[in-house]
Amino acid sequence: MKRVAITGVGAVTPLGNDTATTWRRLVDGRGGISALRTFDASTFPVRIAAQVNGFDAARRLGRSTARKLSRAAGFAVAAADEAVRAANVQPTDGSQWCKGVCLAGTVGRAELTELVGMAEDVLAGRYRRQAPAVVVRRDQSFVSAFIARRHAFAGPVVNISTACAGAANAVGEGLRMIRAGECDVVLAGGYDSLTTWLDVLGFSLLGALAAGWESDPAAASRPFSADRNGFVLGEGAVVLLLEDWDRAHARGATVHAELAGYGSTLNAYRVTDSPPDGGGAIEAMRLAIQDAGARPNLVDYVVAHGTGTPGNDASETVAIKEVFGEHAGALCVSSPKSMTGHLTSAAAGVNLIAALGALRTGLIPPTVNLRRPDPALDLDFVPLTARARQVETALVNAFAFGGTNASLVVRSARGGCRD
Amino acid sequence: MTGTVTELGEKVRAIVGEALALEPDEVIGDATLLNDLGAESIDLLDILFRIERSFGVRIEAAELADYVQGGIPDEEFGDADEMVSERGMAQLLLVMPQLETGARVSRIKADEVMGLFTVDNLEQLVRSRLGAAGPAGG
């Protein structure tokens, strides 16, 4: 079976507008949650989020490009640019038909002010005229197509929409595209910006968001804490450059890690509740480990989905214990969402940055704000500060409303060089 | 009168520059929209949308080809070799006068005509519509 290398990573996150800054702040335990600035949230029950700062799409991507992109799409294009640049993949390098794109996102939404105008016109029986750039900004498939064209990737383009499991599904499907021999190179990841009035309202109504932390936003995201009460919405994009292992080595590329395994399942349980018995997440993790040709006791680090909702963290802990048995106690398990908030479709991308950084540096990002552990959740969640530990194999989790579970296994390139 | 003419041209060039994110000095009158300035069909739609907002003149994208062909049906506009016919060329010179000194009649392929449509040609189109409709709100 073909092996898959990760040769480039790009990111725009609440911690920084590139991968290096994001990783540094993850290890330092410096979060990015603050008062909501993307709209006037003064009447909303939740008024905090983890937002991207100082990102100027026009300056970074060019005015012409930026006009046609939603906020989330701008993050995605910038992250893909960084990944391609980092991997040093040139447009003329290899066949354009064997370069694919597989990205997870959310269908675009009209701005509130735009909707008001549309509603007035439609109700009055008028045909609504809009700039075409505004129309394409709402289209999910346009984003990946735009990225593909920008880098002359003319192979298959796949758009994933599995909510908070999105980026893990996208990276996993990208792995399969390379293994199948369909692609040599795939840009894979996720992008989202659900820090909008519509989504803050929606997730608040679902009772999913951490409430009551307006005076201390940095403390709001409390995965695995006894006093956790929901997640904090984040935004951003993470895109990986996946590459056929042999091709990457043949061209002398820097291989950050091996993308070794992928598993995905559905709970087939309730729509927004996590199954108390761990549900399909158990099978997703097992499949990913098996797919990597590994065994549970070879895993050093689990980058948890760890949202900070009462249900997820309990369910995920049960699932991890079920998969790893006695080895569960020897694992490091941490949740980057304690710092980045929940990047929804891009969330697994942040977890992959944590995993890749840990493989490279031997430092495991902490779960911050974990001062009052939940006695029922008794794994080593790496509380408060980073941990030094050599990591050879890491498992990344991403679960979603609707019940989708996706897990990925990444392995150090050092191990990969042995055979 | 000259002032108004220049003003209209400047407005059209500003609209093209804004839609294509070009600097003002890149948008010169004899630049072709598609070939020189790299406009795609979505950009043409954008330009026409902005013209509508700015001049109150509504031009549908589909009308552009009709305007250029002056209502001559495709089979008469192009000859058997898909080159612009003599009749077609006479029409083209009315709306794209720059072709007079450019390529000879027989050298223009019918399906490449739109690629030769310039910023000045667009300005002329807007002016003709404004003239037909009378002064419109801006």
TrEMBL record, chain A:
<dbReference type="Pfam" id="PF00109">
    <property type="entry name" value="ketoacyl-synt"/>
</dbReference>
<comment type="similarity">
    <text>Belongs to the thiolase-like superfamily. Beta-ketoacyl-ACP synthases family.</text>
</comment>
<keyword id="KW-0808">Transferase</keyword>
<dbReference type="InterPro" id="IPR016039">
    <property type="entry name" value="Thiolase-like"/>
</dbReference>
<dbReference type="InterPro" id="IPR020841">
    <property type="entry name" value="PKS_Beta-ketoAc_synthase_dom"/>
</dbReference>
<dbReference type="InterPro" id="IPR014031">
    <property type="entry name" value="Ketoacyl_synth_C"/>
</dbReference>
<dbReference type="Pfam" id="PF02801">
    <property type="entry name" value="Ketoacyl-synt_C"/>
</dbReference>
<feature type="domain" description="Ketosynthase family 3 (KS3)">
    <location>
        <begin position="1"/>
        <end position="412"/>
    </location>
</feature>
<dbReference type="InterPro" id="IPR000794">
    <property type="entry name" value="Beta-ketoacyl_synthase"/>
</dbReference>
<protein>
    <submittedName>
        <fullName>3-oxoacyl-[acyl-carrier-protein] synthase II</fullName>
    </submittedName>
</protein>
<dbReference type="InterPro" id="IPR014030">
    <property type="entry name" value="Ketoacyl_synth_N"/>
</dbReference>
UniProtKB/TrEMBL annotation, chain B:
<dbReference type="InterPro" id="IPR020806">
    <property type="entry name" value="PKS_PP-bd"/>
</dbReference>
<keyword id="KW-0596">Phosphopantetheine</keyword>
<feature type="domain" description="Carrier">
    <location>
        <begin position="6"/>
        <end position="88"/>
    </location>
</feature>
<dbReference type="Pfam" id="PF00550">
    <property type="entry name" value="PP-binding"/>
</dbReference>
<dbReference type="InterPro" id="IPR006162">
    <property type="entry name" value="Ppantetheine_attach_site"/>
</dbReference>
<dbReference type="InterPro" id="IPR036736">
    <property type="entry name" value="ACP-like_sf"/>
</dbReference>
<keyword id="KW-0597">Phosphoprotein</keyword>
<dbReference type="InterPro" id="IPR009081">
    <property type="entry name" value="PP-bd_ACP"/>
</dbReference>
<protein>
    <submittedName>
        <fullName>Acyl carrier protein</fullName>
    </submittedName>
</protein>
